Structures are given as structure tokens and as C-alpha cells.
Design the sequence.
């Protein structure tokens, strides 16, 4: 094609474009502003709609149509406060459009104005009492208000008109979980799954129950299974990560939190949890990197601020860190002559060896303190092996009448024991018809956390124990209402049963009327320790820092006297003293 033909072709296109322009312009003269705004809204041009509505409202500020589309557009743009102001104007004009009140309710809820959100969704329901969406919205608002019984009632009302609404069962599951009715909650989630097996939140709810019941191993296994169905579900990954964190499996938790950070790089909570894993692994350099990342995203992140203080402390010389630990925590500080000067002198030494640390502890130890001590490298490695290899000895015994007895024994209260105990107890289907024997002979104690988990499993709702610190402050340990009942509980103790063993024995005895303590008087250790754990140098300081009480009773130096005394440590004698045999 030569140049002459090209120019002629371009001229034809120009003429067609001009004709088309005048044709459209002529026809647009017949299109109303309302039609143009409605079309722009449908096409998602929300900013343009707001601008055009504002032009029209200058001359007619009470025009319902332009207010309505402005409000809806602001809502879609996430400008919730401005949307509320427009919706309130519509409300003053006696709007009968339930969507106005639904959107106003959602806006208030997103701005954390929950009571106003509830008022608006109730108004929407009064205008359309058969809307499932409005009931669902109300359920979530009541849940956020912690009005769990009302949330359940609201979902029951919805199910009368929409019996197959899976989200109603999800909200009921949330509410029952939060009031610790875990069996009912699980049934609600299961019902929802039967109605919609592709709604991921129902499976997340089941994972949440496992986590809340401290079934961390089960939670991990369940999340693994569900992640095959929902491979990128962040909530399932998060519960899996939290379960590893709770099991103190920091490397696995770290990997998962890192995966979450890749999914949500601007989430300050993920950065904080990742920082904690590095902190517990004593990789302080990386812990600081992610702590600062979290604080850059949210300067008010309380967890990150607390971790920053700990990291600042971790950068100090070794002797100063040890001195600060002792100064801040030692229960008997005020009973040691010259305590402050001894601690201050040690603080400036810098790097110190194991003998210097041991000499320092001996110099500040109160004469009646038998439970502050140093674990050196050799014992530290043995303790690590003990932690890894410590397991529950578990057996099921039957008497001549076929009655079942569950026998459990363990030597130390480690973190893993808490999970094992729960898993064993959860597998017993007829516990109320069984006797339970907990053998704590020669168990010198361990983690109070594990003791309180076991008490939570076995006790009804109550305060299981108090921890009382040097300054008089108190921590309270509670058991929730979910517990496993046994026909009778026997606790075997001897003269080596101490600390957490005594806390468990006394806690069961004081809160249940079907507990019998069998054996020999215990040690009488009613104090607990704080731990300075130096993983790289492989030593640990256990420093007495609190008393513990059960129902105002502290057994420091007093022992626990058994209900049934035995004269020997033989297991056969213990069994025969309660009319049982070890088969």
C-alpha cells in the first residue's frame, strides 16, 4: 500500500470517529445522571461515583439516590467512617432499605464500635426478618461482644428458617468453644462440614479446639491432614506453628512462622512470633532483626516491646546478666547479709567460668535454701537426654471382678509429660468406671506448667494453686470446667517425692473427695524456681523465686502426710495397701 492509500485510509477512520463521537454525545443527552452513576457503580468506579454524587448533592443535599450511592461507594472503598456519616443521613431520612443498615453495621463493626453495629443489624433484621446474611452478621457481632449465649440463640433462630446454613453452625461452634463446651463445639463444626465440606473455617475451628485442649500433637496431625485439602490456609498453618511453639519445638515452629511471613510480610504478629523462636534458640541476632521488623510495622506491639527488652538484656556481659537475674528474682534476697554488694561486685566481672558462677551462687544463697543450685555442662547434657527420653509408664490393670485400673508413673515433670498425660487420659472412654493410680515415688518435681496441665485435666472449674512472689504479687492457676472424672484416684508418694509431685498430690486431695494418698511422707518443698538457661555454654541456674499455695496451704518444710502409710517402698506393698494387685 502506497502513502496515498494510507492517508486516505486514516482519513476514513477519523471521519468515522467524529461521527461516533457526535452520536454518543447526542445520545448521552438523553441519559440521566442517576443512570450514569448507577452504571459507574456497577462497573466498580467507586471514586468517580463519590465525586459525581457530591456534585449532585451540592444542589440537593437530601437526595436519597445520590446519598445511597455515595454511601455504598464509600463502603466499598473502605472509607467506613465517611460511609457511616452518609448512612446516618439516610437513616434520618427514614430509609427503609435494610442494606443501608447492614453496611452501616459492618462499618461500625470494622471500626470496633460493636454496640452500634448491633443496633444497626437489628434494624436491618426488623426490615427483613428472613435474611440469613443479617442473622450471620448479628452472630459475628455478638461473638465479638462476648455474648456467646445470645450468639447461639441467634443462630438457632436462623436455623429455623434456613436449616442448612453451614455458617450458622460455624458461629455456634465458635461460641461453644469460647465457653469451653468443646464436645458441643466439635459437633457444631462437624454438622457444618456435612453441609459444606469445602468451607475451610469449619476445619480451622476443629483445629482450634485441639489447641485449646492442649492436644498439640493431635492438632499438628490434624492440620497436616487438612492442609492437603486447603494447602495455603494461613489459619491451619498458624495453629500448626503455635502447637510446635507450645511443645517447645522451636525449629519446626520457626519454619512455619517463616512460611506465614512470606504470605503476610506486613503482619507484625508473625514477625514477633518468628522473633520469639530465634530468642528461645538463643540466636539473638536474628531475634533482633524480626523484633525490629515487627516494631517498624506496629510500634505498639506489646509482645515485640517486651522481647526487645529481653534482647537488650541478652547483649550484656554474662556476669551482668546473671547478677540481674539473681537480683530481680531471688526469693530470699532480703535475708542475705550484704546481698547487694555481693551481686554488684559479681556483676562487673564480665566473662565468668562455671566455678566463678557456682561460687557466686553459694555466696548469696540463704542458709535455709536447699533448692537454689547450678547445673553444669555434664549434668546439663544428662538433663537434656532426660527431657528427650522422659516418658510415662502406662498400664491397664484388671481386678478379679473385671474392674479397670489405669496405672501411670513418671520420674520428672517435663514438658512432654503434659502432652503424653493428656493423650492417655483422652483415650479412656469409660473413666468414670475406672480407678486411676498416679505413681510419683522418687519423682523430685520439674515444671509447674506440667503439674497445672494435669490438674486442669482432672479437676473441675477451680483455682488449683497460687504462686506468690517476693514482692507479694500473685499468679493464679485455674482449671476450666472440662475435666475427666475417675471412680477413685490413688497417688503413690515416698520420701523423694517433691515440688511438682507435692503440688499435684495436694491439688488433687484438696479439690476432690475421691483421692487417697498412699506411701511415705514427702519432702516438703513448697517453693518453685526461675531458670537461667545458657544453651551455648551448657549450664543452668535454678533460683528459688516463689512460694506456691493450694487453698492457702504451703508445705515448705512440712511434708504431705499420706492417708495410707506403707513401711516399704515396694510397689507390691503399695498395691496391696489399697486392695489391688499388680498383674
Sequence:
Amino acid at each position: 500500500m502506497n502513502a496515498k492509500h494510507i492517508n486516505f485510509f486514516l482519513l476514513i477512520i477519523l471521519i468515522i470517529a467524529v461521527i461516533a463521537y457526535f452520536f454518543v454525545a447526542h445520545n448521552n443527552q438523553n441519559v440521566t445522571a442517576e443512570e450514569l452513576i448507577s452504571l459507574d457503580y456497577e462497573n466498580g468506579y467507586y471514586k468517580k461515583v463519590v465525586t459525581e454524587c457530591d456534585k449532585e448533592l451540592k444542589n440537593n443535599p437530601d437526595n436519597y439516590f445520590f446519598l445511597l450511592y455515595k454511601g455504598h461507594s464509600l463502603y466499598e472503598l473502605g472509607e467506613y467512617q465517611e460511609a457511616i456519616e452518609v448512612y446516618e443521613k439516610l437513616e434520618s431520612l427514614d430509609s427503609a432499605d435494610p442494606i443501608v443498615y447492614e453496611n452501616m453495621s459492618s462499618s461500625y463493626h470494622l471500626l470496633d464500635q460493636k454496640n452500634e453495629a448491633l443496633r444497626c443489624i437489628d434494624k436491618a433484621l426488623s426490615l427483613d426478618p428472613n435474611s440469613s446474611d443479617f442473622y450471620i452478621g448479628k452472630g459475628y457481632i455478638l461473638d465479638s461482644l462476648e455474648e456467646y449465649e445470645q450468639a447461639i440463640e441467634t443462630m438457632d433462630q436462623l436455623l429455623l428458617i434456613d436449616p442448612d446454613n453451614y455458617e450458622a453452625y460455624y458461629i455456634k461452634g465458635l461460641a461453644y468453644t469460647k465457653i469451653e463446651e468443646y464436645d458441643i463445639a466439635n459437633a457444631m463444626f462437624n454438622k457444618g462440614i456435612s453441609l459444606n465440606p469445602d468451607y475451610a473455617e469449619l476445619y480451622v475451628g476443629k483445629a482450634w479446639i485441639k489447641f485449646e485442649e492442649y492436644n498439640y500433637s493431635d492438632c499438628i496431625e490434624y492440620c497436616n491432614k487438612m492442609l492437603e485439602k486447603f494447602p495455603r490456609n494461613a489459619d491451619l498453618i498458624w495453629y500448626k506453628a503455635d502447637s510446635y511453639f507450645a511443645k517447645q519445638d522451636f525449629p519446626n515452629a520457626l519454619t512455619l512462622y517463616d512460611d506465614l511471613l512470606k504470605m503476610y510480610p506486613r503482619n507484625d504478629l508473625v514477625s514477633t512470633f518468628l522473633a520469639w523462636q530465634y530468642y528461645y534458640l538463643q540466636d539473638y541476632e536474628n531475634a533482633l532483626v524480626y523484633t525490629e521488623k515487627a516494631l517498624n510495622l506496629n510500634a505498639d506491639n506489646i509482645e515485640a516491646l517486651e522481647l526487645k527488652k529481653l534482647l537488650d538484656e541478652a547483649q550484656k556481659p554474662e556476669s551482668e546478666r546473671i547478677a540481674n537475674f539473681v537480683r530481680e528474682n531471688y526469693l530470699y534476697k532480703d535475708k542475705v547479709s550484704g546481698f547487694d554488694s555481693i551481686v554488684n561486685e559479681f556483676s562487673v566481672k564480665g566473662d565468668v567460668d562455671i566455678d566463678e558462677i557456682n561460687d557466686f551462687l553459694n555466696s548469696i544463697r540463704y542458709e535455709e535454701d536447699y533448692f537454689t543450685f547450678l547445673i553444669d555442662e555434664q549434668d546439663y547434657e544428662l538433663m537434656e537426654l532426660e527431657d528427650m527420653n522422659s516418658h510415662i509408664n502406662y498400664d491397664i490393670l484388671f481386678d478379679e471382678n473385671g474392674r479397670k485400673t489405669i496405672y501411670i508413673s513418671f520420674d520428672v515433670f517435663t514438658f512432654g509429660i503434659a502432652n503424653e498425660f493428656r493423650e492417655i487420659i483422652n483415650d479412656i472412654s469409660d473413666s468414670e468406671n475406672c480407678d486411676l493410680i498416679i505413681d510419683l515415688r522418687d519423682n523430685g518435681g520439674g515444671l509447674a506448667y506440667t503439674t497445672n496441665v494435669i490438674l486442669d485435666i482432672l479437676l473441675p472449674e477451680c483455682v488449683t494453686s497460687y504462686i506468690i512472689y517476693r514482692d507479694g504479687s500473685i499468679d493464679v492457676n485455674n482449671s476450666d470446667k472440662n475435666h475427666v472424672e475417675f471412680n477413685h484416684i490413688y497417688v503413690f508418694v515416698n520420701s523423694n517425692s517433691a515440688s511438682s509431685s507435692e503440688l499435684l498430690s495436694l491439688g488433687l486431695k484438696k479439690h476432690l473427695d475421691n483421692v487417697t494418698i498412699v506411701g511415705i511422707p514427702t519432702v516438703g518443698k513448697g517453693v518453685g524456681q526461675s531458670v537461667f538457661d545458657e544453651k551455648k555454654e551448657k549450664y543452668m541456674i535454678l533460683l528459688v523465686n516463689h512460694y506456691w499455695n493450694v487453698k492457702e496451704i504451703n508445705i515448705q518444710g512440712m511434708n504431705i502426710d499420706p492417708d495410707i502409710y506403707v513401711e516399704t517402698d515396694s510397689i507390691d506393698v503399695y498395691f496391696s495397701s489399697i486392695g489391688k494387685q499388680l498383674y
Q: What stands out?
A: The chain is about 60% helix and 10% strand.
